[in-house]
Amino acid sequence: METRVDPAVLDVAAERCGGLAGRLKRAAGEVEPESRAAIGGLGGGFRLRGSLERVLASRLDEFGKFEKYLHDLQGALTRTAGDYRRSDSVSADRFAFLREG
Fold it and tell me: Whose CA is closest to 36, among 18, 59, 16, 13?
């Protein structure tokens, strides 16, 4: 069984993960003020207000966790691409003497 890995593909995937994390953060940042304004407009006497506050806090927490996951995945893909490049280089160096000999 053979596995072929193209580090450039891993680099592209890492870049896309970073881009998605940034877009998610911006989207959450745009929704939060509007949501807080809507919740604030309900007044303190509405039970719905507390429920909506908890839902918003929960969603923002989940978005934050997913953003962190995407950044962690970006780092893992970048490091893996580097590892494959180094491994290929070391392997090539081990056999370089055959070409020179």
Answer: 59
